Every structure is written in C-alpha cells, then in structure tokens.
Amino acid sequence: MDSHTDFLSAITQHPRDMDARLIYADFLEEQGDPRGEFIRIQCELASPSDDLDRRDVLDRRQEQLRSRHERKWVQILREKVTSWTFRCGFVESVEVSAEQFLKHADAIFAATPIRSLTVTSASNLLDRIVAHPRVAELEGLHLERSELSVTDTQCIAQVSFRRLNSLRLSSCRLVDATFLPLLDLNVPSLRDADFSANRLRNHSFTALSVSRAFHGITELNVMANEIRQTGAQQFAGSPGFPDLELLDIRGNPIGRSGARALFERFGQALRF
Question: How many CA atoms, within 13 angstroms, populate the side-chain half-sphere of residue 47?
Fold first, then answer.
C-alpha cells in the first residue's frame, strides 16, 4: 500500500484489524501528519494497562490532538451523520437519521471503519436499512426515537448478525406484538440488550426469559416499561441468563414481591 486511499480501503473493509491501523499510523508519521500519533495513542488506550500515569498522559494528548484536528478528520462525514465517536484513531460509531443513512450509507462505510450504528426515525424503513450488506457485519446496532412496526422487527430478526454484541431499541414504542419477532434473532455474539423506554409488559418479559437469542447476554436494560409483579417473578424463576451482570428494571411497577424475587435471583446485578 502506498497511498491514503489504499490504507483507508483496507481499514474500512476490515474494521477489526488493528495492525492495519498501526501500519497506516507509521505511514502518516513519516509524512509528518499528526493523525498518525492520534491513531497510535488511541490504539494503546484501547488495550488494558495498569500504568495509570501513562494512560493519563496519553488521554490528555489525544484530547489535544482531537481538539486541534477533529474538524478536518471528520470533514467527509460532517454532512452525512448527526454525531460520531472516535476509537483507535477512526470514527467507529455514528448516529444518523434513517434518511441520512439511506442517502449516504455507502459513503459513510467507505470513509471510516464503522463498527456501531445508531439510527433514529427508522419507522417503516428497516427493510431498506438492514438490506445494506455492511449492517449484518456491525458489532452494535442501536435504534432510537422510532415507532417500529411488526414488519420492522421482523426485518431485524431475519438478519444473521455474525458479530453483533450490542442491540438497543430504545424509545421505539415497542409493545408485545412488535417485540416478539425479536426473540427469533440470530445473534450468537450478543452480550448487551437494551429495550428501555418502551411499552413492554409481562408477556414480553417472560418470553424474553426463555429466548435462546438472549440466553448468553451479560447486560439487559428494560427500564421504563410496563412490566409488573407477575412478569418479574416469572423472569426470576426462568433458567436463562446465567451470565447476567446487569439487569436494569427501574421505572417498572414490579412491586416489592417482584423486586424481591429478582434480587434473590440476580443479587447485585439488579437495578430497581
């Protein structure tokens, strides 16, 4: 590879390959481009380390570089996305409206190694959104501020997400009928599920407790739904979720007995 275009193409096509990023960082540093240092710093910060003093130094330096150069680095994305987050030297997460995504998806995926996507206002558009081939490769898919139909959730359930570890459908006006298709998801790597600020009731919560799709998750957020005592007790008595580290059920009318049953099952993992 001998040009920015070659490097960027390799990185966007293989977003999990950190070696390609570090090779590009070498190339940039040889050109005197501060983006090389930024990539190298963020890659190091993404790796576990007990050297807190060094991490503090690196964190301050990355913020200096970002404040000076971020406008230039995101120039190609500025009119195509609502917000963005850097990781390992590149924008890896973006928020877009459904309209923005459908208009600019190819350009966004070509510009930066997207690993997590947040889409707003996606009502009745999920068939077109999930049809993009790069969506099935995402590690995070978050839908917010939408009114999803049964057809929308069925479209999501039909995608084979090989790498998805975070699924969030928050403030999507989900009810039992629109939620249940999600129980058929093919998400072997899923660890984080968020269905907060919807209208889910006992039936959805109980069905979730026996769903194979969500059996292995470590975090579940169902805050601000309409789950009651019976749903909480049935969930607590289910055999699922052996690895759950966080269950956020705040804002649901589960009552004292529902809370007690969940606490006896999940202990300190429970937020209520």
Answer: 10
Q: Which residue has the tokens 């090389």?
A: 36
Token pair in block for residue 16: 């999990």
The CATH class of 115-271 is: alpha beta
* Residue whose pair of structure tokens reads 């999940």 in the numeric block: 266
d(CA 151, CA 179): 11
Label the pairing between strands 246-248 and 270-271.
parallel
Angle made by CA atoms 105, 109, 113, in degrees to the nearest 5? 150
The domain locations on the chain are 115-271
Q: pTM here?
A: 0.93
Per-residue pLDDT at 11:
96
| Helices (runs of H) and strands (runs of E) counted in the chain | 11, 9
Confidence at residue 256, expressed as pLDDT on a 0 to 100 scale: 95
Whose tokens are 């009119």? That residue is 79
Position 3 confidence tier, pLDDT thresholds 50, 70, 90: confident
Check if the beta carbon of residue 208 is closer than 8 Å to that of residue 183. Answer: yes
With beta carbons less than 8 A apart as the criterion, state whether 180 and 154 touch: no
C-alpha dist (Å) from residue 23 to 11, 19, 59, 144: 10, 6, 21, 36
**Residue 70, Cα to own-chain centre: how many angstroms?**
22
Of 126, 47, 140, 156, which is closest to residue 93 (Cα–Cα)? 140
Under 8 Å between Cβ of 174 and 145: no
pLDDT for the residue 2: 61
Residue 111 pLDDT more than 90? yes
* pLDDT tens digits, one per residue of 50-76: 999 999 999 999 999 999 999 999 999
At a CB cut-off of 8 Å and minimum separation 6, what does 47 contact? none
Measured distance CA(73)–CA(111) in Å, rounded: 10
